[in-house]
Amino acid sequence: xxxxxxxxxxxxxxxxxxxxxxxxxxxxxxxxxxxxxxxxxxxxxxxxxxxxxxxxxxxxxxxxxxxxxxxxxxxxxxxxxxxxxxxxxxxxxxxxxxxxxxxxxxxxxxxxxxxxxxxxxxxxxxxxxxxxxxxxxxxxxxxxxxxxxxxxxxxxxxxxxxxxxxxxxxxxxxxxxxxxxxxxxxxxxxxxxxxxxxxxxxxxxxxxxxxxxxxxxxxxxxxxxxxxxxxxxxxxxxxxxxxxxxxxxxxxxxxxxxxxxxxxxxxxxxxxxxxxxxxxxxxxxxxxxxxxxxxxxxxxxxxxxxxxxxxxxxxxxxxxxxxxxxxxxxxxxxxxxxxxxxxxxxxxxxxxxxxxxxxxxxxxxxxxxxxxxxxxxxxxxxxxxxxxxxxxxxxxxxxxxxxxxxxxxxxxxxxxxxxxxxxxxxxxxxxxxxxxxxxxxxxxxxxxxxxxxxxxxxxxxxxxxxxxxxxxxxxxxxxxxxxxxxxxxxxxxxxxxxxxxxxxxxxxxxxxxxxxxxxxxxxxxxxxxxxxxxxxxxxxxxxxxxxxxxxxxxxxxxxxxxxxxxxxxxxxxxxxxxxxxxxxxxxxxxxxxxxxxxxxxxxxxxxxxxxxxxxxxxxxxxxxxxxxxxxxxxxxxxxxxxxxxxxxxxxxxxxxxxxxxxxxxxxxxxxxxxxxxxxxxxxxxxxxxxx
Amino acid sequence: xxxxxxxxxxxxxxxxxxxxxxxxxxxxxxxxxxxxxxxxxxxxxxxxxxxxxxxxxxxxxxxxxxxxxxxxxxxxxxxxxxxxxxxxxxxxxxxxxxxxxxxxxxxxxxxxxxxxxxxxxxxxxxxxxxxxxxxxxxxxxxxxxxxxxxxxxxxxxxxxxxxxxxxxxxxxxxxxxxxxxxxxxxxxxxxxxxxxxxxxxxxxxxxxxxxxxxxxxxxxxxxxxxxxxxxxxxxxxxxxxxxxxxxxxxxxxxxxxxxxxxxxxxxxxxxxxxxxxxxxxxxxxxxxxxxxxxxxxxxxxxxxxxxxxxxxxxxxxxxxxxxxxxxxxxxxxxxxxxxxxxxxxxxxxxxxxxxxxxxxxxxxxxxxxxxxxxxxxxxxxxxxxxxxxxxxxxxxxxxxxxxxxxxxxxxxxxxxxxxxxxxxxxxxxxxxxxxxxxxxxxxxxxxxxxxxxxxxxxxxxxxxxxxxxxxxxxxxxxxxxxxxxxxxxxxxxxxxxxxxxxxxxxxxxxxxxxxxxxxxxxxxxxxxxxxxxxxxxxxxxxxxxxxxxxxxxxxxxxxxxxxxxxxxxxxxxxxxxxxxxxxxxxxxxxxxxxxxxxxxxxxxxxxxxxxxxxxxxxxxxxxxxxxxxxxxxxxxxxxxxxxxxxxxxxxxxxxxxxxxxxxxxxxxxxxxxxxxxxxxxxxxxxxxxxx
Lengths: 691, 691
Prior knowledge:
The structure is a homodimer.
Chain A: H1 6-30, H2 40-48, H3 58-73, H4 81-96, H5 116-135, H6 138-149, H7 155-179, E1 202-203, E2 206-207, H8 216-248, H9 252-272, E3 280-281, E4 317-318, H10 320-325, H11 329-337, H12 347-364, H13 374-392, H14 400-415, H15 420-430, H16 436-451, H17 457-465, H18 483-486, E5 494-495, E6 497-499, H19 500-509, E7 514-519, E8 528-534, H20 535-543, H21 557-561, H22 587-590, E9 593-595, E10 606-608, H23 613-623, E11 628-631, E12 642-644, H24 651-657, H25 671-690
Parallel strand pairs in A: 5-7, 10-11
Antiparallel strand pairs in A: 1-2, 3-4, 6-9, 7-8, 11-12
Keywords (chains A, B): CBS domain, Chloride, Chloride channel, Ion channel, Ion transport, Membrane, Repeat, Transmembrane, Transmembrane helix, Transport, Voltage-gated channel
Pfam families (chains A, B): CBS, Voltage_CLC
Subcellular location (chains A, B): Membrane
């Protein structure tokens, strides 16, 4: 740039961006497609009980880390926080499945974690550690994992997450200590607090970061704008992602083409738009509200790699739009948050940057590469916060940096709908406790208002990907249905002592993961439900064939005990599930019998078929079940009527069976709207009756 | 004191203390006994589903506020945080029960909260607001309510608590603004951050609040000491409370005598012990490590109402033990936390203050008056923190104020076993983010170590009071039992159409709150379970007598619908439960029949009698039930075998029925100890096998 060969500069810039992004896209598309996107929706679904394949494999981990580094370096408008969450969850999941035998990274003590609940807890903790690493916010990490990701809470999980994030914070601090003396190059430059906005900075004798009662309307305005912009962002993002999915489905070539197109668009915006901003002289210390303008050196230049950019301006001048576009995201946010810098940026540039940031954010996330949402949203929010402060001018007494922080918070509340975790993360990012009440207020206004339009981004992406995430609250129409109304047949069950051929046939022809075991005469007087047996355990049985018997009798417990260990029935790691195709049974063995009694769960959870569907959902979700047996009310039929799984509770299934519920009062309402109306109506009634 | 008439001073001091404490004790003992103590165990039990009487009435609220003010003013070594939590919960509960009709404070829109779950949520939120008000810590308030009090979590509850604490923080800030100019006297003196320990204070050019890797051993030592002292504190407290309960049971006179004795002991300690401390000259600005010693005025005196006390010393000198004892708790804590004041206090005084604070804390809590635990524990912890720092001397490079903060955190972790909430509360109290990793580390060490000795104070008090708090995890012996093993008879059930006399008889002779409704012929072909009916609803039925019928037939739904509204069946406020003694039935009405079908819950949760007790407990606790119906496995018996309530899951009941479980492997282990041993054993096995 300094030699004024601008086209060369542009080609170098755009070329490097394109190369990096194509690298990230290709490794994602060809090696580990599960590593694309931010990963947070997949982790959220996993913690709800949905076992999506391959999201936690070693390949995904490697591609996620390398791909994200490449994608962020390519100036794409994406962040790193989401991929770090997925990375942390990956590492935890790999521990939970006992390491990776394929690569020789396994330890015996890890086998204690080979069950559903411990693996889920480990993933929650790992995700929290990821947030801690991204924002250097230990308490924020715990709260994020518990508020946005986890479906079930308990006290023990909280202090375990806490321990993990504390260790992560201490290790971070250690690295900062080690690298603090400049030995690590650019690596150690940041402090423990990323955007340190000290609340005791003074300018002209006035405390900058102060606020008063008359500032509340400004805060409310920021919250409302954040809600509207956030809801619109979610809406646009959902539609863009739908479009991108249609494009990406056509093949890897289309994925790379899309990535290339977005990269070129980004490069053009980043390089092209600053040409429209006028050059201005560097801010001097004498200028009012130029804040930390002592960065202007003695010969009048203020250029640095992280604040003011010269771009095409003559020496001693700076281009404010280039200073926003061409700095890395973290530095741009720091600059926007800096206090006492009210006159450094100009409204026109801020507006241009805001629009570019907003729409580039919507367009960039769906590219097939590991990408995050957080930091672009924080940046966009800070931008419109400053813009609003500039437009309000003297009507608001708040410092522009402060309003930028509030803008970030409100935009985060409007898009991601997080409250406590964002508050604590912002507190830990800016080290400013006095701001806390304002940040809380702005978050709540934006979240409440935005919730009346649509769901958070992660929920929209979950629906787009078709992951069957089960919410905790029952929809209104569920109260009108009983369990018997949604149970779909036919029911496949096994006898207590079953022929091997029948077992293999059922396993091959259906995809169910659990089967009821019914004891028929002569093992019981009348058909009675004995329990529930899992497909995984049946496959273990079929692989060890020593127990097959020629005649259908119940075997003694002792004869079984010596042949199996508890580890044989451990939950397998992801990607290592047993498949029925791997089981080889000879024709002679097919005619033999296997006793299922010792391997059956004799205490399955059951509901009567007349139970309200809403109550059954509460039971299913709160206890965390995968299968729920339905028993008949009267005793004269088969002892088990059906099995419910999470798919039976999904709206698509229920409304598909009973389309009459779609119309009228039983339509799936956004419950907040109904509740708000109800409260307003009763409030009006009260006013009328007491007046 | 200045006129050296020391006995008069002592008499005035002790007399005022005695009068205030006797006032607090008498209003508690005579007006509202439920207001004694801190109230947090009662709130915790309520949030677990235990409906203890009178803990949330208006009388309790008034006595709690006034009594706590009096108790704290009487120099008793108690705090105000616990009572504030109870106060907040009271206010919320009063809203939840629809205001108080007795005092005319009721609004119609409150009727939407008249159900179990909303009332419980309101109480959780109110408790969080109480913590916020006590510590000016909004995020800490949310986390405290969710970590220590609440038994069930959901995302909606978190952001609702968050909203409440945000509003509380904004109102606080408003008051501070208003009172900041001194218009409110002493009321507005504090800032939003109570113990502002800024991390950028410098002395002699060195940053005070810094720490390095070599400080980790000191931190670990603080944590271990905190755990040991905390576990001992809990043990002593439990035994002292047991003794006090035995004394208090003898009558109100004994309660007042005990209160008087403790008050006199406290006055003697507070007034008498400073006599043993030597007088020292006021710290001057020239003294090293005297910190904010610019409080020493020009004529050499440093006395003030909140820092240095002169006591009996000549002018220009101060008595450091008096400075600790005779300041209010908040000021004492602030002084102990102040940085750069390493030489202001002396080890002997610190030790004396620590011992007095420790044992007075144990002895004072059980007095019949509203008292809190938090602030005394923080103070005691700060004291031994400083003591350890003094004893370590130059081996530790940490500032003594910093170690005092860590001491408080470790003692809180050792006694109350809270982690995330304490961390955030301390962060909000001291506004020092850089300390966060150290505080987290110290909390976790102390909590983990102390958990291997005994439970937290609140759990010990819960057991002492006999409140049936139900934990989430199943004890080991429960896996050996089925539901049928613990169901206690006889079972009282009603027919679908029942004679009024029978209903009244059963309600009068039993204390059960729910009864199964069984349809016999001719209403059904064979006896079948129809549902579950609640005592409260039966009493509503009995009070409205229009529906009684002369012959046992099922009435049509329409004839019922017009006579009842939903509000008739609302959950009553505490203390306003309907009682069967209030129901007046004439002999003629006794012979009539009532149709229970429209008022029965037709979807009760049921378990089969062969279900494992551990699984039934999980269902009971996770779904949040009060009654769980037990149905038989075979169909040829009565359609319902029994009902389980929380008392059936209590260890006393189960082990009382099956004393054989007490011995051997099924003894109720402290699970952590077993898990730790198990992990160590497997670790040793791994080391041995891999070595």
